[in-house]
Amino acid sequence: MKLRSVLVFGSTVLACLLLQACSQQEATPAASAAPVQPTITVAASEPVAAVADPAAAAATYQDLQGNPVEISDYAGKKVFVNYWATWCAPCIKEIPSIARAAETLAAENFVFLLASDEKLDTIKDFLLDRGFNGNFIKMNSYVGSLGIDVMPTSVLYDEKGMIVGSWPGSFEWDSPEMLAQLRGQQ
Fold it and tell me: Residue 103 and residue 107: Cα distance in Å, rounded?
């Protein structure tokens, strides 16, 4: 009986944490509102390695075929990384707008990556079920190791791999306001 109580309590706490993470108020700017300013979580002049402890900074990603991927593989391009999860409703809601923004900005030297720390099979099954397209990758560490505590969170790296913007929360990435913010980050 005691074990059952512990399991029920643990499940309740986990459910509350998941709901709290997904219940963050979505921050979709209205067309007539002033553009939303990004929340820079790291000074713009700090390199990618400065966002996390050495173990997390050395963390790699992999594509859905298991091949290694690094942000540095895209040197010379602006790299937008969206950290998302299959269980996060705001994350799922913004994926189509990320795909449209990627299409819109492809000719402007942008690369869009969608990174999850879940198992490869979980990501693949989710994408197959939902029919989403894009550059989905898997993290080889946990999102929290990067200091990310809001799902989704998006980070923009400049052509040299420096973080120039960070946006916690869900957005309509193909809206004129958000496209202007992405283009304006130097």
Answer: 8
d(CA 174, CA 41): 22
Query: What structural domains does the chain harbor?
Result: 36-184 (3.40.30.10)
> Does the pTM of the predicted model rise above 0.85?
no
Q: DSSP labels for 18-83?
A: HHHHHTSPP----TTSPPPPP--SS-TTSBGGGGS-HHHHT--EEETTS-EE-GGGGTTSEEEEEE
Query: How would you class 120 by CB atoms within 10 Å of its CB: exposed for 0-12, middle for 13-18, buried for 19 or more?
Result: middle
Cβ-based neighbour number of residue 157 at 10 Å: 24
CB-CB contact of 92 with 26 (8 Å): no
pLDDT digits (tens, 9 = 90+) for 80-96: 999 999 999 999 999 99
Strand order, beta sheet including 153-157? 68-69, 61-63, 136-139, 110-116, 78-83, 153-157, 163-168
Amino acid at position 122, single letter: T
